[in-house]
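Translate structure to sequence.
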């Protein structure tokens, strides 16, 4: 059975996308945030092994959330019912079994029927080879669907770009971030900025901080978390006198990993739960730490959410989209 190495697949998908951009004007894509529409040949595929494989991966819990929420919300439809309305869905995964094939074929298109859109299709001679192709490439699929989600959010944010916040960020850190309306600067110190958005039932915030980079040990998980704890204790107060933000290390230890899939060639991604020492507040956060190519400093951009008893995944995805808008000032 043919294998599809992740890195080769992603490189192929990017190249494929670049040379297959439609020239004509197409409709705006639709669909709920973090949703994938699975297109099947018959209901038995959704109840069978193909559907089980899809649910096991995309339905698994998103890391770093304080309650159970899946990576993606999944809905399904039979291909016979794939009308023009459904073709506008932003994220689609097509299941096809064709016994005439000798091996599985993985195809992907961006902006096929709408924009932004990601359509991934696996055609295989039988269910077993379909699942093998899916399992070999599912991490790459997730990267593509994540990118589709960020593109949609950034398209929404651009018309309301908040220059009053973006300009101080640029001046302080030599970076550009697309920060939409509703955010304000809550604290600005040397090499540290706290940017907040307050709604009736949730809060979103960004933290940006610059620290010296001495050697690669500054990027190990212990240093990343201890640096965060030092700064948030100093700058992010809790609601009760003497309380302060920290990083939860017992209930849900933070996941710190190196990634080459950020907007830079290399970044340290951290996902975890923040809490308030001396109070009962908590919520998820995600951060990316990179080396500024001009200053040589470590730049960390974090987004965190406070939404007690409410879903948090999509609020965190919005912040991640803002972080991914990062550009270095040249």
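Result:
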């Amino acid at each position: 059975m043919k294998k599809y190495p992740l890195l080769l697949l992603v490189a192929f998908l990017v190249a494929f996308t670049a040379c297959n951009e439609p020239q004509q004007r197409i409709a705006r894509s639709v669909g709920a945030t973090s949703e994938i529409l699975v297109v099947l040949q018959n209901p038995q595929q959704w109840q069978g092994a193909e559907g089980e494989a899809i649910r096991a991966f995309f339905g698994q819990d998103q890391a770093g959330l304080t309650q159970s929420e899946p990576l993606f919300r999944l809905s399904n439809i039979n291909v016979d019912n794939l009308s023009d309305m459904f073709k506008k869905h932003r994220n689609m995964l097509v299941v096809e079994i064709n016994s005439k094939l000798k091996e599985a074929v993985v195809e992907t298109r961006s902006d096929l029927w709408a924009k932004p859109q990601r359509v991934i299709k696996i055609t295989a001679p039988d269910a077993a080879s379909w699942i093998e192709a899916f399992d070999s490439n599912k991490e790459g699929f997730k990267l593509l669907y994540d990118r589709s989600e960020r593109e949609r959010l950034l398209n929404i944010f651009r018309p309301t770009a908040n220059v009053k916040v973006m300009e101080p960020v640029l001046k302080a850190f030599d970076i550009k971030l697309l920060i939409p309306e509703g955010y304000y600067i809550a604290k600005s110190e040397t090499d540290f900025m706290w940017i907040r958005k307050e709604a009736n039932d949730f809060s979103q915030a960004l933290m940006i901080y610059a620290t010296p980079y001495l050697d690669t040990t500054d990027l190990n998980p212990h240093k990343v978390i201890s640096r965060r704890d030092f700064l948030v204790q100093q700058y992010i107060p809790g609601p009760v006198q003497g309380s302060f933000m920290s990083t939860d290390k017992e209930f849900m230890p933070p996941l710190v990993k190196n990634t080459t899939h950020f907007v830079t060639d290399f970044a340290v991604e951290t996902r975890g739960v923040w809490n308030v020492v001396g109070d009962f507040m908590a919520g998820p956060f995600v951060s990316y730490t990179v080396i500024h190519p001009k200053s040589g400093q470590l730049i960390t951009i974090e987004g965190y959410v406070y939404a007690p008893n409410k879903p948090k995944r999509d609020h965190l995805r919005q912040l991640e989209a803002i972080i991914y808008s990062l550009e270095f000032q040249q």
